[in-house]
Design brief:
alpha/beta; 7-stranded parallel sheet; 14 strands; 15% strand
Length: 429
Amino acid sequence: MGLFLYNLLLPVGFLFFLPGLIWKYRHRGGWKSTFSERFGRFSPERLRELENFRGAIWIHAVSVGETVLALALIESYRKLHPQRRFVISTTTTTGQELARNKCPEDTAVIFCPIDFRFMVRRTFDAVRPSMLAIFETELWPNLINEARRRKIPTALINGRMSDHSFRGYFRLRCFFAPLLEKFDLISVQSEADAARYRAVAPHGCVAVSGNLKFDQSPPENLRPVELSDYFGSAPRTVLLGASTHPGEEELLTQSFLRLREKHPDLKLVLVPRHAERGVAVAEIVRDNRLVCARRSECVATDSPVDVLVADTTGEMFRFLAAADIVVMGKSLAGQDEGHNPIEPALLDKPIVTGAVLRNFRFVQQVLLDAGGIVTVPDDSALTGILDDLISDPEKRKKIGENAGRAIGVHRGAAAKTIAALEKLLAPRE
């Protein structure tokens, strides 16, 4: 009944979804040449290419963050099981571009179809995978049901469920429980996540494998962005706002203005979570009478600027590597869900966040216990906390090193996840 109602209402929901899809297609960068695959349409050339991947493991990511994890998981998987082949699907054009640029051999990249049954079936006909592994929270009923109908093992990997999501899932458990129980495996990040999934779907096959983000490694031969091209050659301290959201850019810009009175060598880099907000973020900076450049418009400036707006995709690690202090977005200015603090920790960077990271509570606690993160109790305290870190390079270094060590202790999720997936494949081979 739940699937019937879903398919009945899906066309109506798609009409509301369509304007946003068109807007993102027009304004967001990334790979768009094969975007018709979102509608289950594959060119003859693509179909012939995918014939070579029959029986591959289909891993579905959403955007850039999940794609980075998917690529890392595939790298680990191929070391343990070199005979395996993979297909990665993404939803966004930016994730698609990253996957195409970084995918290893024996890996194909496609767009995930919109969840209409006929589009999903066309994609399964093209791919014919041996398994479907879905990252984190992508619960598309027709995608999952079609895998089940074809007797293809299906896994949710690196699963998580925030407090906010749990309330919604639990309220609608009459719909979500049957859906989640169709998975052959729900591999989650923590015991808290496992408890939430079991509360929603008591008969689901839930296992704790750890957080795959802990198993990430910085890219090989990582080259920091050459910030001298924007800030000049004089010595400087770089404050980076990573994956910022509306409200946070204004807060960081105002804090930067106050800090610069005491620390004239301070420079600010803002990396908005959504690159298409680059124009709006640059306007905020200029409204505060600061000189700024946009990364998407130029790779260097003739004269030094105060602020760089990094409105590109796929360069986060390079900007993190060039920073002295990292403020993680979606944790200030009224936001409390947070973004992944593991990436700067991998580079031994001192991390500043809001006091609550609802989507990364476990990771935040790991870093807090190790002295590898600094939390801001409220927005008014941000400037003082940053002033303390800017003034004390040794303190910054110690916090960063603590963060890096803490992440290393929690590695191992990839091996556990791969072992669990192999168990699902074993009876069918």
